[in-house]
Amino acid sequence: MVESQDFIRKLSVEFVENGDCIKNKTSKAKKTLRGLISFFNERCKIEITYANSLANLAKTAGAGALSYSLLEYKNHEESTVKAALNALVNSTFQESESHKNFAQLLKQDAISCLDDTRKDLSANKRAWSNKVDFLKK
């Protein structure tokens, strides 16, 4: 029992002596997490913008970007060329949906997980700070 109490006392002293190190590491980890969250949020914005541009391109078949639209030619073409134009428009639309889904998964999985971890670190840092302050007294 005495050995156990000595160990706890030594551990407490060690904790107090390294408390500032723990605080610094926690602060740096939170900054890193905020940086990652910011990066992934920006990536989501880019993915959504790209997805919307692709969806718009698929809907208009290039009418805004070109002086003519593939939709006009699709009505005049037959068989193989018409099928190819349809496939091109459909694959562009599917790609836009893939980018939207990726952005949504990024928000759900990566960003929310990183933010939860950051919040946990903040709560733990407060708890550690309180313990260190108490032990220093």
Could you characterize the architecture of this molecule?
By secondary structure, the protein is an all-alpha fold. The chain has a single domain (2-136), classed as Orthogonal Bundle (Helix Hairpins), CATH 1.10.287. It is 90% helix and 0% strand. It contains 4 helices and no strands. It has helices at 2-17, 19-60, 70-76, 79-136. α3 (70-76) runs antiparallel to α4 (79-136). 5% of the residues are buried. The mean pLDDT is 79.
Helix content: over 70%
Mean pLDDT: 79
Determine the number of helices (DSSP H or I, runs of at least 4 residues). 4
Low-confidence stretches: none
- Rounded radius of gyration (Å): 28 Å
Q: Tell me, what is the CATH class?
A: Mainly Alpha
**Total E-strand runs:** 0
SS strand fraction = under 5%
Gross morphology: rod-shaped
Number of domains: 1
**Terminal Cα separation, in Å?**
24 Å
Tell me the CATH architecture.
Answer: Orthogonal Bundle
**H/E topology pattern:** HHHH
Largest sheet: none
Judged by helices, strands and strand pairing, the structural class is mainly alpha
Task: Quote the CATH topology.
Answer: Helix Hairpins
Quick synopsis:
90% of the residues lie in helices and 0% in strands. It starts with a helix and ends with a helix. It contains four helices and no strands.
